[in-house]
TrEMBL record:
The keyword DNA repair does not apply. The chain crosses the membrane at residues 24-44, 51-73, 148-171, 183-204. InterPro entries: ABC_transp_perm/SBD, MetI-like, MetI-like_sf. This is ABC transporter permease. The keyword Transport applies. Residues 18-201 form the ABC transmembrane type-1 domain. Gene3D superfamilies: MetI-like. It comes from the Bacteria. It is found in: Cell membrane; Membrane. Belongs to the binding-protein-dependent transport system permease family. Keywords: Membrane, Transmembrane, Transmembrane helix, Transport. It is a multi-pass membrane protein.
């Protein structure tokens, strides 16, 4: 059968795999964002601490995804756990780096003004510094999400959820009737999901970033 016939016959399974793929990436990005921003908040005031945080998360990113997932299998088992751990770790670097850059880029005069009206440090952080640092943080989230969309496909190696299973089945049966259809369907599905997520982030940016900051 041709590609369109394959999609018509397997659309239900493909939609299920696409939902699982999007779900695991979204959930891991939520965790990576919370952890990354927290690390940024804790380390941005210190040069060495910020460099340590950036270097550590960058080092994690240099570990091949297949190797990291393979190392996690004996520790957390197969399926969702190694997928979640690996994706969360890989998503940290762009968020941590952009959180530190964004927080360090806040105009000191605005911080002084917040101090002058009696804001405590936690209140100042939540009401002044983080909102002003949000644009670069959101950019880091967008970059991390695009990375995780591709890396999540490799999680099929550990029986993880998502469209990687479709791609792996196709690669394992190269030469059969639907092998290329499976690889193509899984790959295009990931691309479409990445574009949809990025469009959603653009909308989030328009809703959460004031015109003055965007300018």
């Amino acid at each position: 059968m041709n590609f369109w016939e394959y999609l018509e016959n397997r659309h239900q399974q493909l939609l299920t795999d696409a939902y699982q793929h999007a779900s695991v990436v979204f959930q891991c990005m939520v965790v990576a964002t919370l952890l990354g921003v927290l690390i940024g908040v804790v380390t941005y005031r210190s040069e060495w601490a910020g460099n340590l945080a950036t270097t550590t998360t960058a080092t994690i990113l240099t570990v091949p995804a297949l190797a990291l997932i393979g190392l996690l299998i004996p520790v957390v088992g197969l399926g969702v756990p190694p997928t979640v751990v690996a994706l969360t770790l890989y998503g940290l670097l762009p968020v941590v780096r952009n959180a530190i850059v964004g927080l360090r880029g806040v105009d000191p005069s605005l911080v002084d003004a917040a101090d002058g009206i009696g804001m405590s440090r936690p209140v100042r952080l939540l009401r002044v510094e983080l909102p002003l640092a949000w644009p670069p943080i959101l950019t880091g989230i967008r970059v991390a999400t695009q990375m995780l969309m591709g890396i999540a496909a490799i999680a099929a190696y550990a029986s993880g959820p998502g469209l990687g299973n479709v791609i792996f089945r196709g690669l394992a049966s190269l030469g059969s009737a639907n092998a290329l259809n499976q690889v193509l369907a899984g790959t295009l599905g990931i691309i479409v999901l990445a574009l949809l997520f990025d469009a959603a982030y653009v909308l989030v940016g328009r809703l959460t970033i004031s015109r003055g900051i965007r300018a």
